[in-house]
């Protein structure tokens, strides 16, 4: 069979080179059914909420968002939350059984050897 030129790859398509130690994690992540939500029209808030509550991830398609502005705004909101909100306000969004939400300093001990009293959340 004669060479017929390069094949067309579906859009979007990316080739990512990863270290061997995280390859199993990426294969596991690829097996997940990550929701894809179209932002070219007003998305259904329930779809976004469900995706984030159940999996913590979603693909956003056709979003007309100025990315640098969005990143700056998200960092500003995060800084405002962590530096400015009271403990009572933070506890309103405390961690759920799905392991999502805010956890205060020394509230969980992931490394009981070095931090037996709980992590400092550095």
TrEMBL record:
Pfam families reported for this sequence: DIOX_N
Non-haem dioxygenase N-terminal domain residues: 34-122
Gene3D superfamilies membership: B-lactam Antibiotic, Isopenicillin N Synthase, Chain
Descriptive protein name: Non-haem dioxygenase N-terminal domain-containing protein
Organism whose genome encodes this protein: Rhizoctonia solani
């Amino acid at each position: 069979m004669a060479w017929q030129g390069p094949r067309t790859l579906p859009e979007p398509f990316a080739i990512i080179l990863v270290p061997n130690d995280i390859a199993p994690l990426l294969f596991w992540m690829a097996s997940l059914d990550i929701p894809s939500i179209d932002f070219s029209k007003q998305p259904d808030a329930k779809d976004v909420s469900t995706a984030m509550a159940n999996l913590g991830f979603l693909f956003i398609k056709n979003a007309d968002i100025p990315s640098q502005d969005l990143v700056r705004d998200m960092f500003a909101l995060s800084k405002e939350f962590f530096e400015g909100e009271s403990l009572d306000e933070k506890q309103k969004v405390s961690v759920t059984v799905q392991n999502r939400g805010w956890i205060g300093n020394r509230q969980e001990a992931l490394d009981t050897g070095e931090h037996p009293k709980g992590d400092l959340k550095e």
